[in-house]
Structure formats: C-alpha cells, structure tokens
Write a sequence for this structure.
C-alpha cells in the first residue's frame, strides 16, 4: 500500500489535474446533457384463447390460464426484434440522426443508416422479464424526455400489431368472408339444380314416390299371384263341372198318371146305347135272325169290345222336368267359363299394371338416387355455408377483440414523459468522483510506468548493479542517511 501511495504522491499534480478535469467533464455532461429514461411494462397473460380453425362449428373458449417462462421470454425477444425497431425508427423519424459528412463520403445509404439507427436504439433499449412475474420491463434512455416516451409508445403500438400478426394471422376474416360468398354461390347453384331436376322429372319426393310405387308394385304382384291362383282354381272347377255335367241327365221324370178317356168312353157308351135301342126297335118288328138285327148285334158287340179294350188301355200321363243338378252344373259351368275369361283379362291387365309399376319403381329409384345425391350436395353446401358463416363470425369477433385491446398481452404501464433525469446531481457527483478518482489513479500509474527516471535506490541497484553512495531529494534538502526501500526521492 505504501508503494502504491508513493506512486500517486510522486505524480500528485498530474493526478489532481486529471481528477479535476474528469470530474468537471462528467459533472458538465450530467448537467448539460442529462439522460432521461422512460419505462413501460408489458403484461403477458391469457385473456382469451383464439378459436381453433376446425371443419365444424366451434365456440370460443374464454378462460384464464397461466403463462410459462418460455412465453414471457418469447415476448421479450419479440420486443427487441429488428423489424419492430426499424418500423419504430421510421415512424419516429430517427433515421436522419447520426448523419455526417464522413458517412456521406463513405457512400452512406438508407439501409446502412437504418442499420446504424437500429444498433443505436438497441443500445439504449432495455427489455428485461421480471423475476417470478408475467411482466416485461421495457425502458429506453435518451437525452430528450419526450423522445424516449414517444419511442416507447410507438414501440408498444408496433409490438401489439406484430403480436397480432404472429399469434393471429392476418386476413382470416377476409378469407372466411370469401369462403362464405363462394359457399353461398355453391348453395344457390345446388338449390337451382335440385329445383330444375324436380321440375323436369315431375317429382317432389322421389324417394317417397318410389316407396309408394314399390308398395303398389307389391300389391299388384300380390293381386297378380292371387289372380293366377284363382285362374288355376277356376280351371280345376271347369274340368270338374264338365266331367260331372256329362254324367248328369238333362231331364228327369217327375210324375206318371194313368186315367181313362172320359169323352171317348161316354161317346162309345152312348153309341152302344143307341145300338141297343135300335136292336130293341128292330126286334119289335123283325125277327132276331133278321139281317138288320144281326148287323146291329154285330155293331153292339164291336162297341162292347171297344169299350172293354178302352178300359184295358187307360191314358198314361207322364210329366218330366229339367234336372236341377244338371241345371246347376250347367249354370256353374257357364259362370266358370265367364269367370275364366274375366280372370284371364284381369291377369293380362294385372301383368300390364305390374310391368308399369315395375318400370315406374325402377325409374323412380334412379330419380331417387339422383335426388338423394342432389340433396346430399345441398346438405353439404348448407353445412359448409353455416360453417364458414360461423367461422367468419368468430374471426370478426376475434378481430374486434384484438382491435379493442383484448389481447393475450397488454400494456400494463404506459410510457410517460420523464420529468427528472435518470440520475440526479448527487448521483452524477458520486459517479464523477468515482470515475475521476479511477482515471487519476490510472493516469498516475501510467505516467510512473512510462517515466524513464529512477525513483528509488533499489531500482538503481536492481537495474545497474551499482551501490548508491548518496542521494539528493527533490526539495534540495541534503539527507546523508542512506535509506533502504522506496522513498519519495527523485534521482538524476
């Protein structure tokens, strides 16, 4: 310590001058060009979560979540991004600062000036995440207080815009709006195509009409099968009736009655009576052997014979009628034949109807498939339209919230124009004393190191290897007493 102090005392004049000049320079700089520091704080939070872009309608989730250290550091690095600083410099007109004739002679241009300005601003800009907090402290030092506050305000605006661009890509609303217009056009085209199909094909609901046609086809098929069964049954009935009809008589005897002929018997008996009366009259006049009498006798005998024969052969009266079984079989056969023709006609008509319903069902099936495809396209177009409308609304709400400042980061402390410099006069005095003392001490040691003079007898002995016989102090006071070690003497 003695040797060190000896060096300072040997060069105390130069050290004092250096100390005074350094202190005055620092004090003058602190008084004439004080440094003002404006500060702001950025709060990193999760005020809301941006809705995910999904192919289905979704609802935005608004919940608070904690932030990680990586996210805070990412936002701190984003605040120091060169592109943000270039934008801030251009917005605040700091590009013109630092121009000089030297740089103009060196072929300076706007890009180089902008790079120097970014470097200069980066030196005075301090971005530091606070420990155990979701806050980022941002400060800027400048000799102009309004410039420091203005630069931080511009930095806040540009940072929020950049944060919005980074975390929420721009053009989302315009993209979904364009998709809404396209999906609406597709929806309208699909609706027109469906209406044109329904108008041209003459169907309202092809699937329902197809089902009705299939039901009618099923009923017609069942009716046709029943008709075929009825025809087979009627054919068997015809064969049975024809076989039975051939075995049944057409007529049957219903009544047989035997009786005499009363008129004939009465006439014959009257004739017999007349002959007997005539014989009696003839017998009165003639003899029984008389020819006339004999002839009458013969006639009487013939009459009696005829009467006897008539009594032996009475009149037979027979009554017959149509056989009821034959008549029933004939009528049933006729009915079966007529019914057979009717069933044949019904079967032919049923086959035609069946073919018609089959063709109609096939055609309606094809139309139903086409209509289902159009309806599926229409439903898909509607779902896509609703999806893009919802997404556009989500994007619009997100943009509105972003414009309203509802971001995942917020300026917790706005920058203000500092009224006092960063360091006070007492602080500058302490800094001046410290720096001036360090500079003066350093200057003393440098001067002592560069001086070619011997300062102590030990140096003479060490360097020349010769003993010291006498020494004269700088104040010309003779001191013949030899001294060991370092002294304040200057030897020549």
């Amino acid at each position: 310590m003695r040797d060190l102090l000896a060096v300072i005392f040997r060069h105390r004049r130069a050290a004092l001058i250096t100390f005074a000049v350094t202190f005055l320079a620092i004090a003058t700089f602190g008084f004439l060009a004080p440094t003002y520091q404006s500060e702001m704080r950025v709060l990193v939070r999760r005020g809301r979560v941006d809705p995910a872009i999904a192919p289905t309608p979704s609802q935005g989730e608004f919940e608070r979540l904690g932030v990680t250290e990586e996210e805070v550091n990412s936002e701190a690095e984003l605040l120091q991004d060169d592109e943000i600083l270039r934008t801030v410099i251009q917005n605040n007109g700091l590009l013109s600062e630092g121009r000089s004739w030297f740089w103009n002679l060196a072929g300076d241009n706007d890009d180089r000036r902008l790079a120097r300005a970014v470097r200069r601003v980066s030196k005075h800009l301090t971005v530091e995440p606070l420990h155990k907090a979701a806050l980022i402290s941002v400060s800027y030092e400048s000799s102009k207080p309004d410039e420091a506050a203005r630069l931080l305000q511009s930095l806040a605006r540009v940072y929020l815009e950049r944060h919005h661009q980074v975390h929420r890509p721009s053009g989302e609303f315009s993209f979904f709006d364009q998709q809404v217009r396209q999906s609406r056009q597709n929806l309208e085209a699909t609706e027109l195509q469906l209406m044109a199909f329904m108008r041209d094909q003459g169907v309202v609901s092809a699937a329902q009409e197809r089902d009705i046609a299939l039901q009618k086809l099923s009923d017609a098929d069942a009716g046709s099968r029943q008709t075929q069964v009825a025809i087979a049954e009627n054919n068997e009935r015809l064969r049975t009736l024809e076989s039975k009809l051939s075995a049944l008589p057409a007529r049957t005897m219903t009544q047989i009655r035997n009786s005499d002929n009363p008129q004939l018997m009465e006439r014959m008996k009257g004739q017999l009576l007349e002959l007997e009366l005539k014989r009696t009259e003839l017998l009165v006049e003639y003899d029984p052997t008389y020819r006339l009498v004999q002839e009458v006798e013969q006639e009487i005998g013939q009459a009696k014979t005829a009467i006897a024969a008539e009594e032996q052969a009475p009149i037979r009266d027979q009554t017959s009628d149509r056989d009821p079984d034959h008549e029933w079989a004939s009528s049933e056969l006729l009915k079966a034949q007529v019914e057979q023709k009717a069933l044949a006609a019904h079967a032919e008509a049923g086959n035609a109807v069946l073919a018609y319903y089959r063709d109609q069902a096939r055609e309606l099936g094809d139309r139903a498939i086409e209509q289902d495809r159009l309806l599926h396209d229409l439903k898909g177009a509607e779902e896509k339209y609703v999806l893009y409308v919802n997404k556009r609304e989500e994007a619009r709400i997100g943009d509105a919230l972003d414009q309203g400042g509802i971001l995942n980061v917020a300026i917790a402390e706005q920058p203000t124009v500092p009224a006092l410099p960063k360091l006070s006069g007492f602080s500058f005095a302490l800094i001046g004393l410290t720096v001036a003392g360090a500079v003066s001490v350093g200057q003393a040691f440098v001067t002592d190191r560069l001086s070619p003079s011997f300062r102590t007898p030990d140096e003479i002995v060490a360097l020349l290897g010769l003993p010291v016989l006498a020494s004269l102090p700088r104040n010309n006071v003779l001191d013949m007493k030899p001294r060991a070690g370092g002294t304040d003497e200057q030897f020549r």
About this structure: The radius of gyration is 72 Å. The longest strand covers residues 36-44. The mean pLDDT is 76.
